[in-house]
């Protein structure tokens, strides 16, 4: 069966399947840094592109390539580039589009290190970023100048769970000749495929739902443009050196096989958590796009298959109450990261999002006391029982 005839769930297991000489079911892990040549003639043929072969794992490796091609099939792209981490993917893609003097327009709420890179690191290299509220298209249009080269966004956003209309953003970008880069980590390709809306590049922290087991750090970028992928792979990933380990590629391939099943359960657990929280007297606000009261609910319905596995919320009262809540949880783990089998809880402003100035948080859609839950795969009754007992302790 050809890849193009397969449904998503089948692609997650079989896309770009390689036929191994030993007929192994799973891809071997090519845990090698280099590949040998029989003689100098073969080396010369390889370096002069007369012969296609692997040379050095930073430039290409069969296990990593399989992961890249499988991700490309799932996102509906031509090809992908794997990176050592999600941040390596994000910084490489941004650097591939924005040079000194150029400007990036980013959504106001982003993962903390992405925000930190744009706000603090890139200005040293002459690349400035304007943070706008992309849920308001007028604000995005007004921010464009002749130097604007990239729109950079997450949807849903981390941790405010804001939803940005991909169709609208792409329309504005294509009129102005601007590239659109979307971090699809929170949705995964099972729930949302931004390339179908005309987005130029999708990036992921593969560490999260792609892995699903909290045991590998990795990143990936996918595009429909094969020439761009070649440039990103050989001009940026390979030169800057943020290469993925073949072992991690193998772990991520293993994770991908169950992505559809896991995403269904993450999403249904998150829905149950959100509905429990919204009715609880101690809860001030729940940020979850599956709630009809969420301002992005209709857009999320349009562009996502389900609303994802993350719920953020504020308790009534001060930060001390939020701290006490997370410290009273027993089953749920206090940890950064998300998308794992275990339900993980954190206070972003104190942990992953410390780069946001306290007085600016409200502008970026969350508060110092905002709590983020990554719904795991445990039985929902057990997750909710733990949340309930922790809330009883702080009331
Ligand atoms: C939305 C999002 N993008 C990117 C990253 C960075 O990924 P990594 O930790 O794999 O570098 C994270 C990490 O939490 C994230 O949540």
Automatic annotation (TrEMBL):
EC numbers for this chain: 4.4.1.11
GO cellular component: cytoplasm
Pfam families: Cys_Met_Meta_PP
Designated name of the protein: Methionine gamma-lyase
Entries under PANTHER family matching the protein: CYSTATHIONINE GAMMA-LYASE, TRANS-SULFURATION ENZYME FAMILY MEMBER
Family classification: Belongs to the trans-sulfuration enzymes family.
Keyword annotations of the record: Lyase, Pyridoxal phosphate
Residues bearing PTM N6-(pyridoxal phosphate)lysine: 208
Coiled-coil stretches noted in the UniProt entry, renumbered to this chain: none
Cofactor: pyridoxal 5'-phosphate
An example Gene Ontology biological process: transsulfuration
InterPro entries: Cys/Met-Metab_PyrdxlP-dep_enz, Cys_met_metab_PP, PyrdxlP-dep_Trfase, PyrdxlP-dep_Trfase_major, PyrdxlP-dep_Trfase_small
Transmembrane segments: none
Gene Ontology MF, one: methionine gamma-lyase activity
Keyword set includes Lyase: yes
